[in-house]
Amino acid sequence: MSQAHHTKDENEDRRDLADCLQSLEIVVEQSSKTLQVLEKFPPETRQAGSQELRELIEEAEKVAEGMRDTLKQQQSLKNRRQRNHEQGQETSVEYREEMQFHAAGLEAFSSDENPATNGCIANYHIIHEGDIKKDEEAICYLAQHEPDRLQQASIPWFSGLTGMYSAFLLLLASATPIVSAQSASWSAAYSKATAALSKLSQNDKIGMVTGVGWGKGPCVGNTAAPSGISFPSLCIQDSPLGVRYANPVTAFPAGTNAGMTWDRTLMNQRGAALGAESKGLGVHVQLGPVAGPLGKIAQGGRGWEGFGTDPYLSGVAMIETISGMQSSGTQACAKHYIGNEQELNRESMSSNIDDRTLHELYLWPFADAVRANVASVMCSYNQINGTFSCENEESMTGILKTELGFPGYIMSDWDAQHTTVTSANSGLDMTMPGSDYSDTPSSVLWGQNLANAISSGQVAQSRLDDMVTRILAAWYLVGQDQGFPAVAFNSWTGGQASVNVTSNHNQVARAVARDSIVLLKNTNSTLPLNKPSSIAIIGTDAQTNPSGPNACTDRGCDTGTLAMGWGSGTCQFPYLTDPLTAIKTRAASDGTTITTSISDNGSAGASVAQSAEYAIVFINSDSGEGYITVEGVAGDRNNLDPWHSGNALVQSVAAVNKKTIVVIHSVGPVILETILAQPNVVAVVWAGIPGQESGSALTDILYGSTAPSGKLTYTIAKQASDYGTAVVSGSDNYPEGLFIDYRHFDKSNIEPRYEFGYGLSYTTFGYTNLAIDITVSTGPTTGQIVPGGPSDLFESVGTVTVQVANTGSVAGSEVAQLYIGLPSSAPSSPPKQLRGFDKLSLAAGASGTATFDLTRRDLSYWDVSKQKWVVPSGAFTVYVGASSRDIRLQGTFTPGGSSTTSTITSSKTSTTISTSVTTSSSTTAKTTTTSSTTSSAGPTQTPYGQCGGQGWTGPTGLCRTPSKLPSQLRNEPHLIIHTTSSTDITALRAAVQGAHLVNFCYLSPPSLMVDGQKLLIDACIAEGVPRYIAGDWSMDTRKLELGKQPPKDPMKLVQAYIEDREAEGRIKAVHVSNACFLERPWVGMWDAKGDLFKY
């Protein structure tokens, strides 16, 4: 079968199942609402209808959970198939086997035991005549057909019930797909959106999802205003650090600086101020914040727009920024989703990212954005595993909308859409700007073309309705239906605003710029300055561009002090306080003489430096978006050296001045070895991309008004090759996997110049009293999908605390950092990963408690086989310190065991050099494991806990794994098939250990069917198996071959036992039925001979 044929069939199957799942979720939600109404009526009125409806809801919820699991399995299949294809591997035989296995699973969702979905999947109809009651049959139709056909199809269901079901029918008829377990705010927004949708014409809907074209509205992106409701033309505008093109606005520090504050409050305040200015100018959607690029490539052109190279830190910054923006009434747009890590060939290259790396690094902060109720997400220019991001069904629908439960809408990056039909069917909800930059009619891919595709059946009407509903819901979510101002500027005519929205936001900008400054070196406490007699200010980076801070379009030059990179992620400076001006102002009050050399000429710099008490040299390194080339740099930096011969400038100055201070403005890491080799360089200050308050914030630090508290959000290496990543000319296969930045340096034991999390202060801090209080169960997540992922993934599992004391003589702020090392049972994991931070402001001599709240996600890794987040078994290591290598305290905890703590007396090491102290068993896990231990007797286990691919080696009759089991299943814990008469609980536990799903299929003897299943269920609970399928003898003719009859109604007894365990929250029954010998398989059912049943 060809690659194209595989993709076509796979996509069709996924869409069929996803559509059915969405419809089923509507049935569950609306049925639940109707049930609440019914319960208010007298018993004689409600009895028949409410009981039947309650049973329907319970069954539908079970089926929906199974559908979600199958969708995840298919995503995993698609990933592996795509990677094999890219690598040129022949996969036809194994792929067919695997597709047979999953096709069987799809068919099973339509089995006679699951009437709620019977017939929903067009390719897998297996309706059994006479087995489906008419009322159940109607539920299938409700999920299968378009709303305008629901009334006729549902007549059998409603015929015997009370008249109030007519109201329920009308609700279903107008329903659109929604996300299960939405937050209250999203649910309210969806209710309004659904009502509004019914009032829109087809032309209205098309206009709301299609931009009006490049340059055809006041904003960089604009939609058409519908006539059917009071809804505006949406104004969609850059950028993540200020409203692009408009003036006056506040030019905030870039995302990289916000990250280097490590301050949640400042991140939120910055977001709130950004949102307030956008709303005040009539901007509905502000294009930011940025989670991609994450920054895996040190030279990457747009890394400065994001918050740093660590997904946890980036995720926290996304949450705080989005919460702030949307609390001010502006829709945030998280971008660029996903794998947009470089500018070179960004519109054609493919980011080929393995599944685990995608989830643990690049998806992590986007999941946090969804948790923060972000209104929209922007898909990126690049391809993801061979398919363009804005055409990629797996990334948009499979992962973002289904796995992460994203209720908002996905918009394209500008001109990142490539097709009409595929983009719509894959999950794109809005195309921007609606045309390409030529704005020719042929470049409009949606608009009338989308309307035609719907008319011809290539795109479903429900897909368009879903797009519009998501856009409406996001608008209602942030309250933009309540007195939102009109657009107050025009991007194409100078941008002068009719209102001033800057308020006191300069104070927020200054605070972020100040608290993001990182002190890298401070020999002999050179800083802070104390009324020096004279200072020489040297370098073009010290002063504003003589032509003005906005002289270059989109900041596309490196002339003057660097306070913003270049590209669409910029805005207009209302003013720029440069370092020279700010230092002169302060020096005047101190009587300090200032001399200058505002050039990058080494001789000129040395000339003014040789007679000064201090010389401050300003250097920089710039980058930006690839549509602009600056001094030969087309977005991504060509190297990691300072620009404008910065190394030579410092050398010349330091040769003649013994108190040389270097200030660096940079978009990302710079190699500093030449500078640090100069013995007269006594202080180095990293100021990043500070925005309009650049000089004021720097002066606050240089003169000690505030002690520096910024920490690096990336590693500064000794040489560029140490990073292990670089800009590539073709597609990027992400060979480094999980190991970027400090993860790579730790794994490869490379000594950095300055590590991730590093930053000095004017005071010192001590760490004591590490306390670990963690209660967590091992195994995978089992929670319902909520915005962000499974609900239990974000549940608190405990805290780690330390005491931090200011042991110096001045006030200061310290960022205490928590890193977690996973047990060895988590394969190929980084030595440690950031999982918490707490910034404490402490007076001299004062102390405080740094508290790190941990969730289940913080202790999990992404299991590609299970397609779930899994807490591994074994000992976790806890590291707390001032940076990723300056570890002060260390401890361990084991779920179900005890914790130990150690004090680290040497700096920048994770070696334990003092004795451990065992604490009380505060880490006892909330685990379902019984007190008995697993015996070594039993099956020979593979690494995933399978029974083995070539037959059973344990006790006779316990477990038979057929030799014809597809090779994929021999190495992945999809399921274990049991044909058992064993009553040995220890052996049963050993058999199911590591499984993700256990399917019971009882063969003999029938007398043990009930008791045997109960034992097996207990074994599953003890080993943390999350799901169980209970099988039975069927009434199929195969029972005659065995010559025995099953006990009467044994499954009712088993079902009652399972329901009790489910009520305790200990296991989830996927299905309870006579599934064992159906002619059609249940999730890949195998018979006693090891043959797959034919279908």
Task: List its traits.
polysaccharide degradation, TIM Barrel, 5 domains, 6-stranded mixed β-sheet, alpha/beta, signal, cellulose binding, 1095 residues, Rossmann fold, 15% strand, disordered C terminus
Secondary structure elements and pairings:
Layout lengths: L2 H36 L4 H44 L5 H17 L25 H11 L5 H4 L1 H4 L6 H9 L10 H14 L4 H8 L11 E2 L12 E3 L17 H7 L2 H17 L4 E2 L24 H17 L3 E7 L12 E2 L3 H8 L1 H8 L4 E4 L3 E2 L2 E2 L4 H11 L5 E4 L8 H6 L21 H8 L5 H17 L27 H11 L2 E5 L11 E5 L40 H12 L2 E5 L4 H8 L4 E8 L24 H9 L5 E7 L6 H4 L4 E6 L7 H9 L38 H7 L17 E10 L4 E2 L4 E2 L2 E2 L5 E11 L5 E10 L11 E10 L4 E9 L5 E3 L4 E4 L4 E6 L5 E7 L5 E5 L13 E2 L48 H4 L5 E3 L6 H8 L5 E3 L8 H14 L4 E4 L7 H5 L7 H14 L4 E5 L23
Parallel strand pairs: 2-3, 3-4, 4-6, 5-7, 6-9, 11-12, 11-13, 13-14, 14-15, 30-31, 31-32, 32-33
Antiparallel strand pairs: 1-2, 7-8, 10-15, 16-20, 17-25, 18-19, 20-23, 21-22, 21-26, 24-25, 26-27, 27-28, 28-29
Helix pairs in contact: 1-2, 1-4, 1-7, 2-3, 2-15, 8-18, 9-18, 10-19, 11-12, 11-19, 12-14, 19-24, 20-24, 21-22, 27-28, 28-30
Summary, kept brief:
The chain is of the alpha/beta class.
Number of domains: 5
Mean pLDDT: 80
| Helix run count | 30
Shape: globular
> Do you know the CATH topology of the largest domain?
TIM Barrel
Strand content: 5-15%
Q: How would a crystallographer describe the biggest sheet?
A: 6 strands, mixed
**Segments where pLDDT lies below 50 for 5+ residues?**
1-6, 87-180, 905-981, 1002-1007, 1032-1048, 1071-1095
Q: Judging by the overall fold, what is the CATH architecture of the largest domain?
A: Alpha-Beta Barrel
* Main β-sheet, spatial strand arrangement: 1-2-3-4-6-9
Q: Return the structural class.
A: alpha/beta
Amount of helix? 25-40%
Assembly status: single chain
Provide the CATH top-level class of the largest domain: Alpha Beta
Number of strands: 33
Distance between the termini: 19 Å
CATH level 4 superfamily of the largest domain? Glycoside hydrolase, family 3, N-terminal domain
**What is the alpha-carbon Rg in Å?**
31 Å
